[in-house]
Write a structure and sequence with these properties.
- The structure is a single chain.
- With 267 residues, the chain is of the alpha+beta class.
- It folds into two domains: 106 residues, D-amino Acid Aminotransferase, Chain A, domain 1; 141 residues, D-amino Acid Aminotransferase, subunit A, domain 2 (D-amino Acid Aminotransferase, Chain A, domain 2, Alpha-Beta Barrel), CATH 3.20.10.10.
- Strands 6, 7, 8, 9, 10, 11, 12, 13 and 14 form a nine-stranded mixed β-sheet that branches. Strands 2-1-5-4-3 form a five-stranded antiparallel β-sheet, covered by helices on one side.
- The longest helix has 16 residues.
C-alpha cells in the first residue's frame, strides 16, 4: 500500500522538522519515478543533480550513499510504480540568517505515479522566468501561480516565455519541439537541466538534436511539441495558446519508445 509518511534522515518527520521547510522554503529536490521492478531511469543523473544543487544552495557536500539508503527505506512496502521525491534542506535554517544554513538533511516522500505518457497537454504562454533556473529548488510560487493562471483560462499548464521573447520551459517540465525537418529542437534559454531531457539526448541518437532560441511564434509553427520530465516521460502538447499542434509525429513516437526502453538503475 502507498503510504504518506515522510522521513527525515530515515526517521519519521515531525511537524517541527517540517516547519522550517514550510515557512522558509530554502531547499532543493529531485523527483524520480520508480518502475514496477524497482528501477529508476536516470538514477545516477538524479544523484548528480542533488550533489550539484547542494553545493550551489548550501555550499555543502552530499553523501549519495546516504540518499540511496534513505530512498530504499522510504520505498519499502510501497506500491509501484510510484514517485519518490528527495528534498534537501537544513532544519535549522533561519530567515534572518540563511547564510548559516550549511548542514543539509534528507527528506524522502513517496506518492503514486501516473501513466506514461499522460494525455496531451494544452499550454498557455506566460511571461515568466524562474529564479536560479539551473537549480531544481522548492521556490515554486511563481511557477504555480503561472500554472494556476493558465488553468483558470482553460489550459492545462503554463509555457514560460522570457522577457527576451524566447520560450524556455514549462511549469515543472522541459519543453522540446520537432521542426519541419524532423530535428528535435531544445530551447536555448535559462532552464533546468532535466534528467529526462538528458536521457533523450543520450539515447535517441538516430534523430538529430539541436539547441536554438525559439520565439513563441516559432514554437507555434513547429511540426510538434512535447513536455518532458521524469513523471510524464514524453507528453505531446496539443496546443500553445490558440494554436493547435499535432499530437502524433514519427519523431515523438521514437522519443517515447526509446525512453520507455531505457534500462533503469537499481538503488
Amino acid at each position: 500500500m502507498l503510504g504518506r509518511m515522510l522521513t527525515l534522515d530515515g526517521q519519521p518527520a515531525t511537524a517541527a522538522d517540517l516547519q522550517p521547510l514550510a515557512l522558509t522554503n530554502l531547499a532543493h529536490f529531485t523527483s524520480m519515478r520508480v518502475d514496477t521492478d524497482g528501477s529508476i531511469r536516470g538514477l545516477s543523473l538524479h544523484m548528480e543533480r542533488l550533489v550539484r544543487d547542494c553545493k550551489i544552495v548550501f555550499g555543502a557536500d552530499l553523501d549519495t550513499d546516504r540518499v540511496r539508503a534513505y530512498v530504499r527505506q522510504g520505498l519499502a512496502g510501497q506500491d509501484r510504480p510510484c514517485t519518490v521525491r528527495v528534498t534537501i534542506y537544513d532544519p535549522k535554517v533561519d530567515m534572518g540568517r540563511p547564510a548559516d544554513a550549511d548542514d543539509p538533511h534528507i527528506l524522502v516522500s513517496v506518492r503514486g505515479a501516473g501513466t506514461i505518457p499522460p494525455a496531451p497537454l494544452r499550454a498557455m504562454s506566460v511571461t515568466y522566468e524562474r529564479d536560479l533556473p539551473e537549480v531544481k529548488h522548492t521556490g515554486l510560487f511563481g511557477a504555480l501561480h503561472a500554472r494556476r493562471t493558465a488553468q483558470l483560462a482553460g489550459y492545462g499548464d503554463a509555457l514560460f516565455v522570457g522577457r527576451d521573447g524566447y520560450v524556455s520551459e514549462g511549469g515543472t517540465w522541459n519543453v522540446g519541439f520537432v521542426d519541419g525537418e524532423g530535428t528535435v529542437v531544445w530551447p536555448k534559454a535559462p532552464v533546468l537541466p532535466g534528467v529526462t531531457t538528458a536521457l533523450l539526448q543520450q539515447h535517441v541518437t538516430a534523430i538529430e538534436h539541436r539547441t536554438a532560441t525559439v520565439t513563441l511564434d516559432q514554437a507555434k509553427g513547429m511540426a510538434a511539441a512535447f513536455a518532458t520530465n521524469t513523471s510524464i516521460g514524453v507528453r505531446p502538447l496539443s496546443a500553445i495558446d490558440d494554436t493547435t499542434l499535432p499530437t502524433e509525429h514519427p519523431v515523438m513516437s521514437a522519443l517515447t519508445e526509446t525512453y520507455l526502453s531505457i534500462t533503469g538503475e537499481t538503488l
